[in-house]
Amino acid sequence: METQSLPINYLPIIFQMLVAIGFVVTTMFVTHKIGPKRKTKDKLTPFESGIEVVGNARTPASIKYFLVAILFVLFDVEVIFMYPWAVNFKDMGKTGMIEMFIFMATLLAGFIYVIKKKALDWD
Amino acid sequence: MSTFYFIAFLSIFFSILVISAKNPVHSILYLVLTFFTFTIHYILLNAQFLAVVNFIVYMGAILVLFLYTLMLINLNKEAEPVKPFMVKIAAVFGGGILAVALVSSLKLLGVSDPVVLKNPDLGLVKNLGKVLFNEFLLPFEISSVLLLSAMVGAVLLATKEKEPKATI
Amino acid sequence: MELIDLLIKIALIIVIFVISLVVAMYSTYAERKIAAFFQDRVGPNRAGPWGILQPLADGGKMFLKEEIIPTNATGFLFIVGPSLAILTACIGSAVIPWGQNLEIGGRVIPLQVTDINVGILYIFGVVSLGVYGIMIGGWASNNKYSLLGAIRAASQNISYEISMGLSIIALLMVTGTLSLGEIAKQQHGFWADGYFSWNVFKQPLGFLLFIVCAFAETNRSPFDLPECETELVGGYHTEYSSMKLGFYLFAEYINMFISSAVMATLYFGGYNFPFMDLIHSPNLVAILGVVALFIKIFMFIFFFMWVRWTLPRFRYDQLMDLGWKTLIPLAIANIVLTGIFMTFFK
Questions:
Q1: Among B75, C19, C50, C108, which is most buried by a count of CB atoms within 10 Å?
Q2: Residues on chain C touching B56 (C-beta within 8 angstroms)
Q3: Assigned domain for C229 exists
Q4: Partner residue facing B147 (CB), from A72, A92, A107
Q5: Which segments of chain C does DSSP mark as H helices, in order?
Q6: Is ipTM beyond 0.95?
Q7: Does the domain made of B2-112+123-158 have the CATH classification 1.10.10.10?
Q8: In this structure, is residue C101 part of a structural domain?
Q9: pLDDT by residue (tens digit) across C2-37?
């Protein structure tokens, strides 16, 4: 039987986050203090290869990207469902495998639908 | 117990920041922090798998989707809708009624017993898997149909034939 | 937890933190030297003997450069972007087992910050947070190139995350645990029960999928579209300067180090090495194990660089097609094959 971890085992992760945050904040502060500051108007415009900037970058983009993101969320949930199954795979044997294959088949049908609809084609 | 109160205070604090922040991207960052405190709550309950699911699905997937949506829409000042004065009055009124209802229902409820976990190891991945694939097999299989319908819906909404192509 | 244990943990955290920073720094030097070797050049050779002090000079330069925040940028988020990028790169190392337990004066010191039950999922979660740094930085710059780079980077990362998760599932079916410490222990030695004990021999296709996804998640060539110079002038970090740019570049190298460590632990036996049972002193085994792990990590880092200076970059539609239409079906096939094999041939 493997050793089970308790909530206290997660404390070092918090420490590590604090160390990392400390490092980032200190570095940002020091570099802000010791760097030279010679600001001119041209320097502070967005860099667009020397061409006069038209408008700004707050523009709508293609819905394809949004579709990728929403499909990612759905597949991510699917993958998460598979973790408890994969860990128990050896104990559950054949029935467990059939159970999961039914689940996967449903999602595979969805995946094939997505591909057939050409939702992921970039042109 | 004091850890719980500290984390609970942080959760409420960050969630208030979520709704009071002016910049929508700031709101999302505060929401990330709120979900992070939820993750700590799950760990304190020894529900480690749920904690990490909350971490991956909510912080890593759903909020990325939110951020995505924000980046893809027009966030210029001019495009912001101006709400009429009456709408604001109605919002304040509605919020007030909701607050009264919540406070009165909490008063009726009284202090409940704190939840005592009968089996503190239930939240571990292995045990969770055993429960999920025996007692709750049917809901699990049905959830795949739910995911399938969400997938079909997203594709139907996002792919329209003969649309002018976006530039970016 | 006792106070002394706590202090040991904190010391370990800081040592690992410093090691990952130093490895990341010297990876930049190695990258330039290796690129020079592949292109028949000399590479950096001015700062110190063989240019060995070059990373320090680069770091010092980053500190002393002027910090530019464009007027159109969203000021606070512009600073948060690179900070988040390096923060998520730095916290991944917490669950990696760096070696077996050391025994000093009767006290057992584990060479792993913490061995949690859901170690792999923690890494997976940290990887999925890596998107934030790039997206927020690119959006806050308010530059069209940066926005495009950020959106591309985000959709690339999330697309490859799915196949990464699926390839890990096939591995978990073999190991039966999510704890990285346990997985490293299972791969003891090199040969056990009439077969290789390292997971790469049990999951060759899974490893191939994982390493491709690791390249995509760290935005390394041939998946470095978010920062391609020719079309996007640097991508999401076009507007960045001084240490903020340094953080973005640095985060890439730290990610490379951490993902190499994860690959070595998951598939190449971690701190295990062949014939380790012949050595009887446990402390010596532990130290040699750390050395073995680092040799594996450096091999992977070299492989990352080798690929970078050999393969050209993908086109965007090729990248998406590879991620969605090739890797995901392959990963699912891998799971099905592993399941059938383990049920019927064992």
A1: B75
A2: 121, 124-125, 128
A3: yes
A4: A107
A5: 3-38, 54-64, 75-91, 119-140, 144-175, 180-186, 199-202, 204-217, 229-232, 242-267, 282-308, 316-321, 328-344
A6: no
A7: no
A8: yes
A9: 788 888 888 888 999 899 999 998 998 998 888 898
